[in-house]
Amino acid sequence: MTKADVIDAVADQAELSRRQAGHIVDLILNEIQGALQKGDRVALTPFGSFVVRARRAREGRNPKTGEKITIAEHRVAAFVAGRSLKDAVSGSRPRTKKESKKAVGL
Questions:
Q1: Of 39, 42, 30, whose CA–CA distance to 3 is shortest?
Q2: pTM of the model
Q3: Residue 106 pLDDT more than 70?
Q4: Above 80 in pLDDT, residue 18?
Q5: Domains of the chain with CATH codes
Q6: CA-CA distance, 75 to 64, in Å (whole number)?
Q7: d(CA 49, CA 80)
Q8: Across the strands, what pairs with 6?
Q9: At what angle do helices 18-37 and 3-14 cross, to 10 degrees?
């Protein structure tokens, strides 16, 4: 699925023009990007969360020459799937609150 597919789906389901839906999708993506740039976590319950993770400096190799190089420490964006997304992808039925508490041992 592409960004254009998402825009088309939003336009159809919300009965908006494609241009309005595109503007809304861009606003949402820009807000997520801005929050991640600040190092904030973006939680879209129950879908999942976008987080920023720090990658340590490490040693790598230049694939052409085989020479050892140092890859600098940097931050990367990551996505952590929520329970409902995991259940939807795996094909299992969603858990009820009672079942979730039982699984955790509460």
A1: 30
A2: 0.74
A3: no
A4: yes
A5: 3-81 (4.10.520.10)
A6: 26
A7: 5
A8: none
A9: 120
